[in-house]
C-alpha cells in the first residue's frame, strides 16, 4: 500500500476540483476526514515549493470549514493509519473546539522615526559622544539606546496586549523579529471577530507615537494552536 502525505484533518465534504486534480483526497471516517495525497518517498523535502503547496491546500480548505493543520512533512504509512488517526478522541475534541476559529499572525515593528524619540532623554551621553567620539562613548550611547528601545517595546507590547485580549480566545507570544521588531503574536479568534482585531490595530496605530507598523495575516488555520497527537508510525521531514 502506498504511503500518504497528511495535510490535516477536516469534516467530510466535496473538494475543490483544483485540489482533486492535484491528487488531494479525503479519507472519511464518520464525521471526520483526513486530507491526504499519495507520496512516493519519505521524508518529504522541506523545499519552498513543498512548503507553499502544503499551506495552499490547508488554507484553501480552511476557508469553508474547520481544518486541523498537520505539521509539514507528516507521512502516514497507509489508509488504515489514517482511519486509526481519525478515531482518536482528541481529534473529535479539536474539530469541535476549532469549528468557528481561525488564527491571525501579528508582527509589529518600529521604523527609524522611533530613534529620535528614544534619544531625547540621553542628552548627556549624546553630548559626550559628540565631543569625544571614542569607542567607549559610542558603546555607552548604543547600550543606552538599546535599553530605551527595550523599555519602549515592553510598554507598547503591554498596550497592544491589553487592547487585543478581550477580542481573542487565546494568544501565543514569540520573540520579535529583527532589531526593530516589537511584537510577534499568534492570535486565536472566532472567524467573525477578525475584522474587529484589524480595526483595533488601526486605532492603536493612530494613538501610538512614534507609531508601530502592524502586519496582520489571516484568517488562517490554527497552526499555532493545534499539535496533533498521532497514535501511528509517522515520518517527518
Structural features, described:
It is a single chain. The protein has 237 residues and is α+β, with helices and mostly antiparallel strands. It folds into two domains: 3-98, no CATH class; 102-220, Alpha-Beta Plaits, CATH 3.30.70. 41% of the residues lie in helices and 24% in strands. The chain has eight helices and nine strands. It has helices at residues 17-21, 48-62, 79-86, 89-97, 114-119, 123-131, 135-164, 194-207; strands spanning 3-10, 25-29, 32-39, 67-69, 75-76, 101-109, 170-173, 181-190, 213-220. The two termini are 20 Å apart.
The assigned structural class equals alpha+beta
- Tell me the CATH superfamily of the largest domain: ACT domain
Q: Summarize the main sheet.
A: 5 strands, antiparallel
Helix content percent band: 40-55%
Regions with pLDDT < 50 over 5+ consecutive residues? 232-237
The general outline is elongated
